[in-house]
Amino acid sequence: MPDLRQITGGAAIIEAARANGMSTIFGVPGAQIYPLFDALHGTDVELIVPRHEQAAAYMAMGYAKSTGRTGVFTVVPGPGVLNAAAALCTAMGNCSPVVCLTGQVPSSFLGRGRGHLHELADQAGTLRTLIKDAWRIDSAADASTLVNRAFRAASGGRPGPVAVEMCWDTMAGQSPALIERPGPSTPEPPVDTDAIDAAVRLLASAKRPMIMCGAGAQHAAPEVELLAEALQAPVTAFRSGRGVMPEDHALGVASVAARELWDEVDVLVGVGSRLEMPYMRWGDPMRYERKPSHGPKVVRIDIDAAEMRRFEPDVAIVADAAAACRLLAERLRTRAAPNPARVAEIAAAKRVADAAIDAIQPQASFLRAIRAVLPRDGILVPELSQVGFTTYTGAFPVLAPRTYISEGFQGTLGFGFPTALGAKVANPAKAVVSVTGDGGFMFGVQELATAAQYGIALVTIVFNNHSFANVLRDQQERFGGRTIGSEFHNPDFVRLAESFGVSARRVADPRELQRALETELAAARPALIEVAIEPGAERSPWPLIHMRKRPSEIMGQSR
Ligand SMILES: Cc1ncc(C[n+]2csc(CCOP(=O)(O)OP(=O)(O)O)c2C)c(N)n1
Known about the structure:
Bound molecules: thiamine diphosphate
Structural class: alpha/beta
Number of helices: 24
Low-confidence stretches: none
Mean pLDDT: 96
Helix content: 25-40%
Strand order of the largest sheet: 3-2-4-5-7-6
């Protein structure tokens, strides 16, 4: 007979999460989830309590994105879950394996609408519209099975966030429960050999193929490189697939260089990517195209079969990126006839891109200063901001997988600083830098307290232009100069950070930033560097993000 123990429902959830490898949990306590917190006593689980529930979820996302391991957070139901909702949507959009542990009203109140503490009608159902899945655990005895299912769902297939909830009385009450080891993960679907054959036929005669990576390729860097080498194909990415191929490798290119090469591409291989860049950024962002009407033949490799219906390729390979890329590379090694001039063409495109990017000042110079200091495996978390948007172009070359953590298609202002804190918690030995505007930073400014309390040695660079600069520019350019709601009176960020116990300084130019960043990374302490920017001084990076024309044509036209 298995050994059944009398434990609380909360302890059963924590034990089951530990059995799934949870070693860190981010969370904000409250009455319904007290038993979850109490169950952490005597375990080696690291608990980080941020100052807002949104940060708990973003930190779990940063933890997950920077490691590939599942991030876990816990918040009270209802308002706690809703406070975390923007982060959950973001984690869904950027494919982060995240598990949310939450509570529920007492079981006798379920569905009664009496208005018990934190009641949210059909919380699990609401969550299911936002994230991968959600379950209620009805007894301690069910905890192990459902928590195992939740962890499997978060990391299996296309990774994403999931949630489990348990009623207040169930979580607090003692009952017998058995914690079982999680079983092996669900095997990925076998690779469809007909689809591989079709892709091999297209690629064997391709003159200028290109590979485009998304989040689904982050675990497949060696296999993507094999395929790229077999084809001598440039490998690019917009955001989530950055670093799969180092952008200082002869075949690694960021978006602007990729656009310079794009018009001649005859076969595109998307690997775990929605292919937003060519078809929504370089095409018409207002017009949904189910199947591209012109341009290269498209091969897509994606673990999510639904992706193939959202955007139909010529060849659909529903498979794990690593398995499919390895198979394609093996099959193409003897059949592909790579173009010997390709490496030189890619190098030329990179030179064009660098010249175009150099015009995006002062952001490009600040990013090059950061790159000069950050080690290859250092992690950069950008924000929706003038400097953050400029990272999309390649102004900050990404050199290793999981070292550039993006917000994905949700474009969630305020994600950056708390996400970077989570990345630093997960990677204490690596340099982690958050790059943010003043607006986005203040969505989570209170987490300076979390950085100080737990000694999270993240360096946060706040580019302070006293505005929502993008909004301000759009209003100036497109609304006849009628600006509204886009300028700020900001606090003194240096004194603010110091009052939290965070080391802080102000710099004015890229050289000063480089020196300050060197100092703070060496000091390995929580730090804030404010960069003073004249409002309106930043050149728009958007012409290099929405590129209808190749950069060499844009430069020829607009200079
Ligand atoms: C949740 C959310 N709210 C609003 C926006 C719209 N938005 C995008 S960028 C931006 C301005 C960001 O300003 P700031 O952080 O100061 O950076 P800056 O552009 O000034 O460098 C806003 C309001 C968004 N993307 N996400």
